[in-house]
Amino acid sequence: MQRVQPNQLKFMSRIHSVEQSFATYHDVRKAGFTNVSADLIFAVPGQSRAVWEADLQRLIELEPEHISTYSLTVEEGTALHRWVDAGHVHMLEETVDTGMYTTGRDFLEAAGYPNYEISNHARPGYECRHNLNYWTGVEYLGFGPAAHSYFQGRRHWNVRDLDQYNQQVSATGSSVEDSEMIDENTARNEMILTRLRLSEGLNLSEYIKQFGEDLLIVRKPALDKWADHISVVNQHLIISRTGWSLIDEISSDLMAVES
């Protein structure tokens, strides 16, 4: 869905309309789907907190099982990047962005959608198993053009173009375009980055078992720096609710520098 304000969808150059979003939602319900996820974007220039709450209210009235919320980011090469660069568009202040994040989180939790991951809410039992596999380091195989896979410490991805994909498979039996081996340092940092995004946090016993070091000891200076925003509960390192808007900075400080 992304937005339920027509002018903001148009501003973001989306090709769908608000009416199409709602019609599609009702269509999938009529088709018998009992597990539906919807997403919204906040911190759009010109958006107020009151409008953001109104958007969330309209969404929860549909009663989807899962809701994702994302802050609008400026990606290089996009029209938005050019507009911001030229001074035609001004992004919301970071404090306003953070305030909207907190508002959305609290609003959805009060409506029965716990925040199980920094950007994701779900009714109990409807957490996204697909993404949880990524966030917890489970191996996966992807098939088809542009598909990614992660298996036995190697991440690889297939060619994107369908014709090239078919030709390459016919000629070589492989659709892989490129790959990378995930070394220990990368695996360590990815575990920190992804697990801390979860409400359950990073399992310290699993970290010790996999990497042979105690994170609480080797990264003590960084942990002391963020002591007001982290805690250890049942051998899990958890970012507190006050620290979720600072997750990137906290994770960066905890990551090991490659030797």
Sum up the structure in keywords.
12 helices, Arc Repressor Mutant, subunit A, 259 residues, 10 strands, Transcription Regulator spoIIAA, 4-stranded mixed sheet, alpha+beta, globular, 3-stranded antiparallel sheet
Structure explained in plain terms:
With about 260 residues, this protein is α+β, with helices and mostly antiparallel strands. The protein folds into three domains: about 5-125, Transcription Regulator spoIIAA (2-Layer Sandwich); about 130-180, no CATH class; about 185-255, Arc Repressor Mutant, subunit A, CATH 1.10.10.920. About 45% of the residues lie in helices and about 15% in strands. It has twelve helices and ten strands. It has helices at about 5-10, 20-30, 50-60, 80-85, 95-110, 130-135, 160-170, 185-195, 205-210, 215-220, 220-225, 245-255, and strands at about 35-40, 65-70, 115, 120, 150, 155-160, 175-180, 200-205, 230-235, 235-240. It has a four-stranded mixed beta sheet with strand order 1-2-4-3, covered by helices on one side. A three-stranded antiparallel beta sheet has the order 5-6-7, with no helix packed on it. Strands 8-10-9 form a three-stranded antiparallel beta sheet. Strand 9 and strand 10 form a beta hairpin. Helix 3 runs parallel beside helix 5 (about 95-110). The longest helix is centred in the middle third of the chain and has 17 residues, at about 95-110. The protein is globular and about 50 Å long. The N and C termini lie far apart (about 45 Å). The mean pLDDT is about 90.
